[in-house]
Fold this sequence. Notes:
The chain is α+β, with helices and mostly antiparallel strands. It is built from 3 helices and 12 strands. Strand 8 and strand 9 form a beta hairpin. The longest helix is centred in the N-terminal third of the chain and has 18 residues.
Amino acid sequence: MRGRIAGLAACVGVLVSTAAGEAHAAPPPLGDVAAVRAALQSAAMPISTRTVESITTTIGRIAADTPRYNYFPRSVHLVEGTAQPFLYDTTAADCLPAGFGEQNDSVGIARAVAGPAVDENLPVPVIPPGKVNVFFSGMNTAMSSPLQADLVEVAWLNLTTMQSGRAPLYQERPADYIVTLSNTLETGRGTIVFVVFGSILDNTSRALPPCDYAPVVGVVQA
Length: 222
């Protein structure tokens, strides 16, 4: 398990560096947290002590085989197509008001819908072939708003064509109690690797910091 997570961390660094136009070889295997931190730094992702704490919490959940959340946002209304889950649920450590569990963590859930698909809650409902809608939900975060300026991004690499990119996630669907951010990306057809990272502001957590999530990786067939 430790080797698998360390290898995954190295892949995150390579993916986002490639998306930013930089080619780097994968670093040698390190300890879990050290490997993820090195990947974040090499990818120029936002990193803080709280991000590292979130990474440690996420690794602990994976190692303990913690059941994944059975949650699908009401703001996603698929009438054609399927939502492909990312490899694991991520975590933002200790960012919620008291009462959400011992650690007051937020669990983050990422999925992707590859075209052809139709989501009636998107501004442009039809997702054509070659495009993928990525959406991310922060559990127990509330009061989503287009003006909230959440700092969540997605980077991607098409392993079939070697095209890559990076874009923000934002509130493009109707507001729901759980913050769900998304974006439709022109990735082309093929096997696409995504990494979602960043922070969500919870308007109900007045004096608490943003929820800084550990990066979450997904492999999507488009």
